[in-house]
Amino acid sequence: MSQPEANKEEVWRSILAQIQLTVSPAIFATWFKLTQIISMENGEVVIAVPNCLAKEWLEQKYRKQAIGFLREFDPSIREVFFKVRQIAAAKPEKTRAAAIPAGQLDFEEFKFNKETNLNPKYRFDRFIVGPHNELAHAAALAAAEKPGQTYNPLFIYGGVGLGKTHLLQAIGNEVAARCPREKIRYVPTEKLTTEIINAIRGGTIQDLRAKYLDTAVFIIDDIQLISGKDRTQDEFFYIFNTLHNKNLQIILSSDRPPKAITELSDRLRSRFEGGMIADVSLPDFETRMAILKEKCQQLKFTVSDEILSIIAQTIQNNVRELEGALIKVAATAKIKNHPVSADFCREILLSINPKKVINFKKILQETANFYELKEKDIISDSRKKEIVTPRQVVMYLLRNEINASFPFIGRKMGNKDHTTVMHAYKKISTKIKDDNSFSEEIGLLKNKIYNS
Ligand code: ADP
Ligand code: MG
Question: Could you please report the per-residue DSSP string of 280-316?
């Protein structure tokens, strides 16, 4: 099947929009920015790339993913080829922006600031605040208003795709807008590690220190990755202390709190704990709706609340995936020139990562793993306390996560009466409300169920 001319560009653009959500801005700008689709015929797609290096890299790392995405639009696609070809230089900013018609996806990723390494799209006014991130947001605002004076360091932690990078960069962008002369640096931990190792090897550690030592706002993302890297930790400790002693602002993010980062030196851990620690957790339904609405505005995509609520109900655990689903719905609607109906939307959502479908088996299996029990014990009639609670948790999750009916749950759980299930559901719901550490435990289990 061959696609009309305008269509294939749309397809590639929407695939780039999805890839953009899964890679760092630097990777995107280096490898994807200058690609173009040349043809899409007879099940074969040809993508133009600017040089051999890009060709090799994309073939090795992204061929499969690209085929996967392309097949969602056209199941007959079998292969992708990358061809080195001179690609027309990007037009100057102004004309390029003007040339993008409303409704098309623009890549702000292109515009990240080379010096600060900040992406201008991550701003406070595009960040939706809900009960799950209120504290982290307030702390971030305070740090942006008075860098170095309120919370230092500011340590923000939480699961994947929950807005940590957005919040960190919003602080940087806010300070940059207000005080353009301040030195601000955003550095992913992988990059910092590479820089430090290279500097140690090349004997240029003084240059590296000079590069960072007078940074007014120093932002380090995903600091948990420093775990086990002793040389990097030593050098980072030095940089951290020097900045901290000068009251310069340090901001860190991590996928877990400092106490849970393994192979971290005690002195760094205590530094991380010495300022403000705030977490971001899972957004509730209303917040997910608000986030989707914000993203619609950015995409210039208009769609009914009904459709948004289907997306918000389906994708609950990761804002990046929430955004990815919306982009896919927007792009598919546009490419297929298909009005977005509820069924159509569900169909698209189903095609996203079908492996992630949560069912009875998955919930039972992960809960058993989590509590180190056998599945058959959970389903048994045992009254042992260490089994009863996990069993009730499974019942609760079946109800909450896949909306199973009480009688259905009873049958699946070893032919128990539906009143038993209702009792379990109530008990676990109450315990989650009343007991913080239990609620955290269930959150962790849910994260395992959805992300393993
Ligand atoms: P993390 O760093 O925690 O893995 P990111 O900050 O990269 O997550 O967020 C993933 C995506 O979700 C980003 O595109 C970000 O803009 C978006 N996002 C996350 N939380 C929010 C929010 N509260 N409001 C608006 N967008 C959000
Ligand atoms: Mg991040």
Answer: E----HHHHHHHHHHHHHHHT----HHHHHHHHHH--
Which pTM was predicted? 0.69
Q: Is the CB of 120 under 6 A from ligand 1?
A: no
Let me know: does 14 contact 37? Beta carbons within 8 Å. Answer: no
Of 97, 118, 129, which Cα lies nearest the Cα of 174? 118
- Name the token pair of 265: 């030196």
Q: What is the pLDDT of residues 149-172, one digit of tens each?
A: 999 999 999 988 999 999 999 999
15, 68 in Cβ contact below 8 A? no
The residue contributing the CA closest to ligand 1 atom 9 is 163
Which protein residue's CA is at the shortest distance from atom 19 of ligand 1? 163
Q: Which ligand number lies closest to the CA of residue 158?
A: 1
Looking at ligand 1, which atom is closest to the CA of residue 323? 12
> Could you tell me if the CB of 127 is within 6 A of ligand 1?
yes
Tell me which of 320, 326, 327, 447 to substitute to probe ligand 1's pocket, judged by most ligand atoms within 8 Å of the beta carbon. 320
Identify whether the C-beta of residue 380 lies closer than 8 Å to the C-beta of residue 387. yes
What does the pLDDT average to over 300-320? Answer: 92
**Cα(299)–Cα(290) distance, rounded to whole angstroms?**
14
Q: In what order do the strands lie in the sheet with 276-280?
A: 184-188, 217-221, 249-254, 154-158, 276-280
pLDDT in tens, 248-276: 999 999 998 998 898 999 999 999 999 99
Taking CA atoms, 157 is separated from 55, 182, 186, 240, 392, in Å, by 37, 26, 16, 18, 29
Query: Considering only CA atoms, which residue is closest to atom 5 of ligand 1?
Result: 163
Ligand 2 centroid from CA 439, angstroms: 24
Residue 204: pLDDT band by 50, 70, 90 thresholds? very high
Preceding omega of 153 cis (within 30 degrees of 0): yes
pLDDT for 350? 82
pLDDT tens digits for range 13-27: 888 887 887 777 777
Give the Cα separation of 80 and 421 in Å (integer): 51
**Rounded to 5°, angle at Cα 122 from 209 and 301:** 155
Provide the pLDDT for residue 402. 86
Candidate from 68-82, 104-118, 136-150 with smallest mean pLDDT: 104-118
Q: Is the pLDDT of residue 99 over 80?
A: no
Q: What is the pLDDT of residues 24-48, one digit of tens each?
A: 777 787 788 889 999 988 899 999 9
Distance 164 CA to ligand 2 centre (A): 5
Question: Cα of 24 to ligand 2 centre, how many Å?
Answer: 9
